């Protein structure tokens, strides 16, 4: 049997039968891989399960799984956790942000489509959630996923007239298609939802940060500090844009936007 040993992060899981789990992994070498963890939920007499009682969402591990790219479902044999993200799990906000990033990857990519740089970025970002730069690194990570998937809307130019908007005072969100609308064009909108230009400028800076193989980014000193309330309209806009371009509605978006 072709087995692959790889570092992987658990993006989704479902209970399957009384003893097993189906798990969507994001693996460093293969990208998304759906696996069945047989016996994951079964305990022995000492109270130990084959996978520690089950594979947890957003845990990162050294995994061993079958490696057939023509199969919808592979089989996982080993899962040795290397990062359980204690800092992220200390707050509900942290968990919601982690699951939001996981859903972006799960929805925007296909199985066996490797993205090693994105893998490094997700791993690094999950490790930073819970720290002082949580909102900035998650926004940078989300932008990176959308960019790699080719669904990042332009945020520096008006979606109607193409004028640059980052230095404008009044910028709105185009609620129909996603993207932003400048002050000159916003009278054409049926609904006006203003977006803070400082947030757009911060997002545009995050977009341009150099990417490294290990996924780390260096946040510029002059970037506006972001908090949950401030980033919400931008996530709402990105979610709308994804729905418009892919037809997929993000289930985790509501929790991230309602903070
Ligand atoms: Zn315009």
Can you give keywords for this protein?
259 residues, OB fold (Dihydrolipoamide Acetyltransferase, E2P), five-stranded mixed barrel, 7 helices, 8 strands
Tell me about this structure:
This protein has 259 residues and is α+β, with helices and mostly antiparallel strands. It has two domains: 1-84, Beta Barrel (OB fold (Dihydrolipoamide Acetyltransferase, E2P)), CATH 2.40.50.140; 134-257, no CATH class. The chain has seven helices and eight strands, in the order βββββααααβββααα. It has helices at 86-89, 92-108, 116-128, 134-149, 197-208, 228-246, 253-257; strands spanning 3-16, 20-27, 31-37, 60-66, 74-83, 171-173, 180-181, 193-195. The strands form two sheets. A five-stranded mixed barrel has the order 1-2-3-5-4. Residues 158, 160-161, 163, 181-182, 184-185 line the site of zinc ion.
Summarize the structure in short.
The protein is of the alpha+beta class.
Q: What are the SSEs and their pairings?
A:
Blueprint: E1 3-16, E2 20-27, E3 31-37, E4 60-66, E5 74-83, H1 86-89, H2 92-108, H3 116-128, H4 134-149, E6 171-173, E7 180-181, E8 193-195, H5 197-208, H6 228-246, H7 253-257
Parallel strand pairs: 3-5
Antiparallel strand pairs: 1-2, 1-4, 2-3, 4-5, 6-7, 6-8
Helix pairs in contact: 2-4, 3-4
Bound molecules: zinc ion (ZN).
The site of zinc ion has 8 residues, from loops.
């Amino acid at each position: 049997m072709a087995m692959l040993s790889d570092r992987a992060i658990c993006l989704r899981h479902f209970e399957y039968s009384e003893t097993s789990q189906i798990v969507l992994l994001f693996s460093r070498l293969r990208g998304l891989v759906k696996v069945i963890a047989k016996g994951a939920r079964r305990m022995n007499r000492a109270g130990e399960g084959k996978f520690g009682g089950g594979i947890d969402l957003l845990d990162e591990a050294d995994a061993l799984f079958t490696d057939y790219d023509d199969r919808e479902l592979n089989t996982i044999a080993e899962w040795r956790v290397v990062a359980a993200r204690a800092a992220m799990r200390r707050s509900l906000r942290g968990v919601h942000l982690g699951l939001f990033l996981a859903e972006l990857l799960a929805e925007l990519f296909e199985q066996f489509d490797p993205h090693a740089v994105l893998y490094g970025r997700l791993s690094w970002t999950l490790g930073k959630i819970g720290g002082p730069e949580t909102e900035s690194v998650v926004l940078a990570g989300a932008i990176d996923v959308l960019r790699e998937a080719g669904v990042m809307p332009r945020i520096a130019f008006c979606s109607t007239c193409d004028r640059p908007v980052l230095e404008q005072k009044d910028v709105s969100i185009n609620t129909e298609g996603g993207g932003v609308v400048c002050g000159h064009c916003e009278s054409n909108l049926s609904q006006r939802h203003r977006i803070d230009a400082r947030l757009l400028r911060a997002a545009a800076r995050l977009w341009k940060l150099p990417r490294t193989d290990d996924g780390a980014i260096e946040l510029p000193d002059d970037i506006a500090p972001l908090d949950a309330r401030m980033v919400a309209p931008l996530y709402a806009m990105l979610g709308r844009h994804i729905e418009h371009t892919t037809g997929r509605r993000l289930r985790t978006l509501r929790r991230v936007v309602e903070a």
